[in-house]
Amino acid sequence: MDSNTKPPLALELDNLRAIKLLGKGAMGTVFLVHDNSLHPFALKVVEKSSLHHSLRRARHEISILSRLQNHPFLSSLLGSSENQEIICWAIPYCPGGDLNVLRYRQADHVFSPAVIRFYLAEIICALEHLHRQGIVYRDLKPENILVQQSGHVTLTDFDLSRTLTPRNSSALQSFSDPEEEPQLKKKGFNNNKKGLKKAKSARVSPVSRRNPIEFSSNERSNSFVGTEEYMAPEIITGAGHEYAVDWWALGVLCYEMLYGRTPFKGKNRKETFHKILAMQPEFIGKPDSLTDLIGKLLEKDPTRRLGYRRGASEIKEHEFFRGLKWELLTEVLRPPFLPSRDETEITEELGKGGIDITEYFQKLKVPPSPLRSPSLDDYEHSISLTEF
Ligand SMILES: Nc1ncnc2c1ncn2[C@@H]1O[C@H](COP(=O)(O)OP(=O)(O)OP(=O)(O)O)[C@@H](O)[C@H]1O
User: Fold this and answer.
1) What is the pLDDT of residues 85-107, one digit of tens each?
2) 207 and 237 housed in the same domain
3) Domain CATH code at residue 68
4) pTM score, two decimals?
5) Residue 296's domain is classified under what CATH number?
6) 153 located within any domain
7) Three-state DSSP class for 375?
8) Residues spanned by the domain of 373
9) Is 342 noted as a catalytic residue in this protein?
């Protein structure tokens, strides 16, 4: 452990009381927890009995997080714990919500090029660090980019990420994950022309992404594992995939931040996949350095995609980032949007006694009484979308 690494939090599950529910994903439930001696932190809790290999994915996420200490734009593991029913881990709390929520709060639901430049730069640094550690993220999308109290961003949700096996040729690498199923092949998307070892494709959500403002309190875009609109062509064809899938997703993200929609969205999954494989992104207005960058990231052949040869440095050198002082990004004191401090709310909620986490999951198992609405209502507070 280096001198900057904090010792892991000793999480005593029976004593933990959550202040409120922050959100629910396909795998876990995330609470805001305040341990008196510490700043508030986010606690992700997974029920061991839940479906979708959740326990395995949870352990995987914990192991990835434990390797990510001290990066300014990546979540890190503060501590973890488990009992017979649940496994949980603590990560820093990001009070600013995610980039999807933030985008929907902008006029026309888009960010200006200056804001895009700021967020992209931080995301590129985060991906660069992951790739240097041999980790492919594979789930880049606005919902997984959270805004810290400082206004800087954090990538979160690593259950889909994978560590690469050593490179043994110039060919794209494949992942070996018994959990992943070659579902797309069944659907006729196998296009393994290069004779590369077939990568098993990530399963994707059957639920499409929606306006987060329309969500009920704890609902979110339900990314089962990966979001189809963000999938790179080589994942769909099963042609073998590696770090370049993250650069493709960066192109999709950038397009969505600029135009308020993703570039290849179809009426259904089949049409979306067809567009990803066969159509070029449509740009509106005069071409500029931002559209040029997007076009180069959305190159269908991964070996010709920006970032394939020299990783993040190739992207950092692009014209769109000219003049940006990469080493000073963390010093920016006024990022585009700053969450307001919600300490009053935290103190008030703490005064009410908070949520007993073990009890929360026990109550969910009790069948609802015919006279009463489901017990979930006992606890679910609305997600507070911090005003900027
Ligand atoms: N550190 C955090 N600070 C604040 N909110 C958070 C934090 N981590 C997660 N959340 C919220 O909790 C919700 C669920 O988190 P997360 O996406 O990590 O769960 P998941 O089960 O892995 O989801 P997925 O469906 O993407 O696999 C998200 O909507 C996010 O807004």
Assistant:
1) 889 999 999 999 999 999 999 98
2) yes
3) 3.30.200.20
4) 0.81
5) 1.10.510.10
6) yes
7) helix
8) 9-94+340-378
9) no
